[in-house]
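During the no-cost extension, the postdoctoral fellow (Dr. R.K.) reprocessed legacy sequence entries with the updated structure-token encoder. One reprocessed record is reproduced below for audit purposes.
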Amino acid sequence: SGGGVGLSGITAGSTSNAGNGALTVSVNTSSAGSVNGSIAVNYFSAGAVNGVSNGLGTLAVGSQGYGVQGAIQTSGNVINQASPQVNNPVLNLGSVRVGAASPTGTVSVTNVATASPQAALNASIAPTSGPITASGSFNLLNPGATNASALQVGLSTATAGNFTGANAGQATIQFVSDASNVGNCAPNCQLNLAPQTVAVAGKVYAVAAGQTSTTTLDFGVVRVGDTVSARNIVVSNTAAVQGLNDTLRANVAIAAGAGPFGAPASVGGIAAQMSGNVAIGLDTGTAGFFNRSASVDFLSQNPDLADVSAGASATVALAAQINNLANGNFDFLSGLGTLTNSGGSYLLDLGTVTLGDMVATSLQFANSVAGPADLLSGMFDLMGADDFNLSGFNAISNLAAGQAIGGFNIDWFAAAVGMFSDTVVFNGVGTNASDPIGLAQTRQLTIVANVVSGGPAAVPEPGSLSLLLAAALAGLLTRRTVVARRSLPEPRA
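Re-encoded structure tokens follow.
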């Protein structure tokens, strides 16, 4: 295309110079390729010489075409863009408990080398979803290089939950291809690339909270040899139900030796807002009063972390009274005869008695057992006693261990020759505070005597004979009288 204002004032026989002006030719270089064209130059005869008009005006005197040829070429560098690769698109930060320090990790990114020249890589990271943190950036990561420290992610421990799998948090990495490392690219050195995401996984457990509503475990009064059901210490996990909870374990240790209360015991796997039982058994092999203190320790557990305390230990008082069984027993106190025993059967042998003798024997009845023991109560059945004169065989009540009652008397006049035998049966029960009905027991006392004649009898004086007959009659009437003839109802076995 033409430019400028043209040439003027060229006189006849002269050549134009700078004083006559200039004609300029320009070429459009907006696209590459060959240029082949022409420009027409038009000539005019001016109506003035040296600025002085001749009055003839301007006259066109022809034109001439001038060709324009050339080639337009482009120049510059083609730079390959950066190629980001996330080396750990899933970061599992492990398991923690609520309130613990936030676990962190770093994202590893490589600018994968392709073809030279290649742009460097810029990156920055920010959280997208879930209870996570994400921060950091880097610039001009050269092709083939890796950055594994600048982009950091973390897991918040403010809220419990299982943030794995589909529940994992997300962070987004923004990438920029930056050709500044190559140069001569301004103002178009940077190019935004597609963002990429990383998953941030982990678990946050809520700590269990243990307590027990049991302050005392009292087995009450039991007997030696009894089979006693275990008693339970009730423990509860009072922690609120959250997204992910520890379970509760309770361990029971008994101070100063377990004694009859069995070995240490425990219970585990108690979920939040649930309860469990620690069973404490009782060995009834030995009588005694037993008081122990049990410590209940609470642990918070999950399959991923070490156990931690689930609260202050609790103390539970353990108590039991193990009684010996009551043991009714006849004892010889004074008088004639010998008393022997086989099991629950007793034999009072008055021996050989001479006709006309007076016999006096005294016994006692005892609860012959070491304490603690059941109390002994009962009544004597005298239905089988009709030969001897018995007194004092009255009902007994609440005879404690080691206590005895005397005054069980046999007063008898041997008025006839022969073998004499009576049977007294004691029907009793052993009771305690836990069993007021009682455990039945029976004792049998057999009294025997052999009355013999004293040899040839002298003829008594008439007066003395009447006295002897009167005494014999009185004795006969007395032993035919039933003394304290009462029976107990059948006791509980």
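The CA atoms of residues 55 and 345 lie 181 Å apart. The radius of gyration is 62 Å. The remaining legacy entries will be reprocessed before the final report is submitted.
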